[in-house]
Each structure stands twice: as structure tokens, then as C-alpha cells.
Amino acid sequence: MTSIPLLTDKPVPVIGVGAMPLSNQRADGDPMPTEDAVAVLHHAFDLGMTLVDTADIYAPDGHRVGHNERVVGEAVRTWPGGRDNLVVVTKIGIVRTPGHDGDTWSRDGSRDHLLRAAEASVERLGFVPDVICNHRVNRTQQPYADTVRGMLAVREAGFAPAIGIGNVHLDEAEIAWEVSEGTIAAVENERSPRFRGDTDVLEWAVRHGVAYFAWSPFGGGRDAAELPTRYPAFAEVAAEQTESTGAPVTAHEVALAWLSAYGPPVVPIPAFTRFPTADSAARAAHLTLTTDQLARLEASPSMETSLFPD
Ligand SMILES: NC(=O)c1ccc[n+]([C@@H]2O[C@H](COP(=O)([O-])OP(=O)(O)OC[C@H]3O[C@@H](n4cnc5c(N)ncnc54)[C@H](OP(=O)(O)O)[C@@H]3O)[C@@H](O)[C@H]2O)c1
Hints:
This protein is an alpha/beta fold. The chain is 39% helix and 13% strand. The chain is globular and about 55 Å long.
């Protein structure tokens, strides 16, 4: 456990949980049964991964927007460890609209939309989350300072005690910091063996003590299994750790330990839908990499483009 005072007074785990795939469509068009999803989250919380990330748009399809917040809400409300021991993050500002040919996606950072979306998130969760982040920047239509003011209105209205930003470039993080008078609590950006294009934002977060939630830390659900072969430096360090600790260590665990090693405000938020992968993520919280291993991982090749480029 660690401490990120800007974010919350609660202890913050070294590794959190991304809940998105618990709402993904399976072969039959439906997500996994809610009781199974809740069991996975309870298992993760029991293992000490007591920060959970959701969003209003995480859902099997546009007709079921809010599905993931409902699942997370149920898991949090029913966990025997208690709501006070969990840090809940949700995100607003993307609009997912169902249509005949699939969903359409847009962004709305207006004050009115953010307030409406935050109220809906609180209702679906069944409690006030610890932090609400703006999911993505509407770069073509809205000055970012206005979006940040909208997020401040969300906080003032009591929909969350802390607010954050997401998928930002450094200049946007700096705007948010200035407009919020240094009260932005979190930034949620992509960082993984695959994508390391925002080192300036990561350094900004560490400098200010702003929580940095590293999303898709394995490069996303579709490619996660390929991590050891696509990014062999992580497999090499895993083999070294296996040798030195005498217990099996995987490339995925090394990826999480490498992200955690940036410092306490950096919290990777891997997703898992099964107990064994949750167990593996939890083990990574106890893995210590050497300075030399961290330097080799940092210098190893990555992809230049984001999973979801703007
Ligand atoms: N803010 C944003 O714009 C944004 C964008 C994307 C994602 N996110 C957040 O980031 C979270 C994670 O991202 P993601 O779901 O895209 O992908 P991810 O965490 O990079 O990969 C998830 C996949 O990794 C597998 N996995 C988990 N732990 C593992 C382990 N220890 N060893 C081997 N495989 C493991 C899981 O398998 P099983 O399913 O078999 O357990 C799952 O298929 C999301 O849930 C969401 O909360 C945020």
C-alpha cells in the first residue's frame, strides 16, 4: 500500500484493477454473468488490489451504457472489506450512442454534459466515487480550460471529492493544473511495454504527486498474450527474476513491477476476467526489479502509436 494525498486519504494499492472487460461482449453477445464479474473483483480486492477503474461508456454495446459502473457498484457495495477500504475511479466525457450500424462515439467536455454524466455515474454506482476523471480531450470543439472548469463544477456539486484528467498531452495537463489551482488528483494515460509515448506527462504527474493510472499495461486485451514475444526484454527480465527468486515470474508481472517502480503516484490498472490472472497481477506487487533491469526495460523498443490514437 502507498499514499497519494492529492487523490485520497485512503491507502492506495501498488496495483489496481481495470474493470472494462468484465462488460465486454462474449460469443453470445452478452457480457460474463454479473455474479462472476463481481467474484473476480472481490477476489482482486481480497488480494489487496483495492483500487478499481471503470467508466460510464464501458458496456457490451451502446444500448447498455453504464453496465460496467453497475457491476463495479455492486462489487464495491457487497465486498465484506467495506467501501471505505476501496478507491473507486470512474470516467466521463465520451458519448457512446447506439445505432443501426454499430455505436457512434463522440466527446463532450461541456459543463452541462459533465454534470449530467457525473450524476448518472453516481446513481449507477450507488455511491459517490473517490475520483471522477474526464475520459478524453475534445480537441476539435472545446477549449480544454472549459472542460477542466466543467470538472471543477462536478466536484463542487459533490459528485466526487476529487477530479482527474485522461489521455492528455503535457500542455493539457499544465492547463488543468493551472485552472484547478493545483488540485487535479489524477491522470489516466496509456503506458505499457507497447506504448511509452507520454514520458513528459508521467514525469509531470510524479513531480506534482498526481496519481497516474497506467491503462492497458499489457497492451490491451487482444494483444496481452503476445507481450513476452513482442517485447522480449520483459521476458528476459522475467527469466532472470525466476532464476534469482526461485519462483516463477512472468513477463506480465515484470511489466507491472516496472510501472510501479516509477514511484507511488503511478498505479498500473491491469484488467483480468479470471482468478489466475488476478493472482499473477497481485504477485507483481511484491516483485522488486534491479536498477539495471529497470534501465534495460525502459530502453527496450516500444510501438510509437497509441492503442487509441487521437
Ligand atoms: N482511460 C482510457 O482511455 C482507457 C483505455 C483502455 C483501458 N483503460 C483501462 O485500463 C484497463 C486495462 O486495460 P485493458 O483491459 O485494455 O488491457 P490490459 O490490462 O493491457 O490486458 C488485459 C488482458 O490481460 C490479461 N491478463 C491480466 N493479467 C494477466 C497476467 N498477470 N498474466 C497474463 N495475462 C494477464 C487478461 O486476461 P484474462 O481476461 O484472461 O484475465 C486480459 O485479457 C481497462 O480495464 C480500463 O479500466 C482505460
